Automatic annotation (TrEMBL):
UniProt xrefs under PANTHER family: AMINO ACID IMPORT ATP-BINDING PROTEIN, METHIONINE IMPORT ATP-BINDING PROTEIN METN
Domain of life: Bacteria
CDD domains: ABC_MetN_methionine_transporter (cd03258)
ABC transporter domain segment(s): 5-244
UniProt source species: Anaerocolumna aminovalerica
The protein, known as: D-methionine transport system ATP-binding protein
Pfam families: ABC_tran (PF00005), NIL (PF09383)
InterPro entries in UniProt: AAA+_ATPase, ABC_transporter-like_ATP-bd, ABC_transporter-like_CS, ACT-like_dom_sf, MetN_ABC, MetN_ABC_transporter-like, NIL_domain, P-loop_NTPase
Length: 349
């Protein structure tokens, strides 16, 4: 099935007098109508460049970006402007007009589109109700909190009834509680109006909370893409594994002291595995039963529960006995209980 956004062999190179930087290399993606699609990577990975290529704010050096079956590179300037009205964008720092009221900020794109004043005002008030900000219509951005500013920015982005909403680090400047409320709002908008949402983020928790599919960008290349639950359960690439293992501490790898200690222990353990518990497997005391059956202890280096699309998924990192035969039998035991199991010793630095 063809996506509402199709990216084929996309490359973006920046060139100045002395340097040539290949920000994106041969990216291929399909984003389908109605999805909430995450694009995640560390700082400098190229994810923000990619999202700007999706609406041709950055023109790719080579490759194709098509939206609703239209190759953006083949559109005239006027056709591209019209197509961009179907692709709205919200940003980390809100980009509101400080000298205009909340209501006027939302009316602004409507007036540019030629909507008369009364219709624009009625539409703006309707959108403020959707984002829970109707009481702030006459306020100015300087009088709002960060979360309120982002709600206004979302309302403004919805003004022209877009098919696609691009969110470039839209929650990075917000505290965790406000982030959760903004993500809940985006999820409701997706469900209520069927708008396709693309979220650019460096936070794995954001992807797990709201996205159905994800693409992992590393050093300008597409490391891995697929359903969030599949990649969380069984990541294939080092980039995906690093994000899943370290992503909640800090994407810049500034780990907490507790996690550093766990990592050091893991490095010293001969064989380590990561296991993911499904809904069905969480009722049985699998680890305790495994230890009793094999008469050998294991070292629990990390244990946590993650919320993936509203479903709790447990994960553990275990240090297995040094005896290879016992360790192999334990892995077989866990797999036989329906758990996802992968060895992690090779990608923990």
């Amino acid at each position: 099935m063809e996506g509402i956004i199709e990216v084929r062999n996309l490359t973006k190179t920046f060139q100045d007098k002395n340097n040539k930087v290949e920000a994106l290399k041969d990216i291929n993606l399909s984003i389908h109508k109605g999805e909430i699609f995450g694009i995640i990577g560390m700082s400098g990975a190229g994810k923000s460049t990619l999202v700007r290529c999706l609406n041709f704010l950055e023109k790719p050096t080579s490759g194709i970006v098509s939206v609703d079956g239209k190759d953006l590179s083949k559109l005239t300037a006027k056709e591209l402007r019209n197509k961009r009205m179907e692709i709205s964008m919200i940003f980390q720092h809100f980009n509101l007009l400080m000298q205009k009221s909340v209501l006027d900020n939302i009316c602004f794109p409507l007036s540019i589109a030629g909507v008369n004043k009364k219709e624009a005002r009625d539409r703006a008030l309707e959108l403020l109700k959707i984002v829970g900000m109707e009481e702030k219509a006459g306020a100015y951005p300087s009088q709002l909190s960060g979360g309120q500013k982002q709600r206004v920015a979302i309302a403004r982005a919805l003004a022209n009834n877009p098919k696609i909403l691009l969110c470039d680090e839209a929650t990075s400047a917000l505290d965790p509680q406000t982030t959760k409320s903004i993500l809940e709002l985006l999820k409701n908008i997706n469900e209520e109006y069927g708008i396709t949402i693309v979220i650019i983020t460096h936070e794995m928790a954001v992807v797990r909370e709201i996205c159905s599919h994800v693409a992992i960008i590393s050093n300008g290349t597409l490391a891995e893409a697929g359903k969030v639950i599949d990649i969380f359960t069984s990541p294939k690439t080092k980039a995906a594994k690093d994000l899943i293992l370290h992503g909640d501490e800090n994407i810049s790898n500034e780990l907490t002291d507790t996690y550093k200690d766990a990592t050091i222990k893991l490095m010293k353990t001969k064989r380590c595995i990561r296991i993911v518990f499904s809904e069905n497997s969480s009722f049985e005391p699998v680890i305790a039963n495994m230890v009793l059956e094999h008469k050998a202890p294991v070292n629990i280096l990390k244990a946590d529960t993650k919320n993936i699309g509203g479903i709790a998924r447990g994960e553990m990192i275990l240090g297995l006995p040094e005896d290879e035969d016992t360790a192999s039998r334990m892995i077989a035991y866990l797999k036989g209980r329906g758990l996802a199991v992968e060895e992690v010793s090779d990608y923990v630095d």
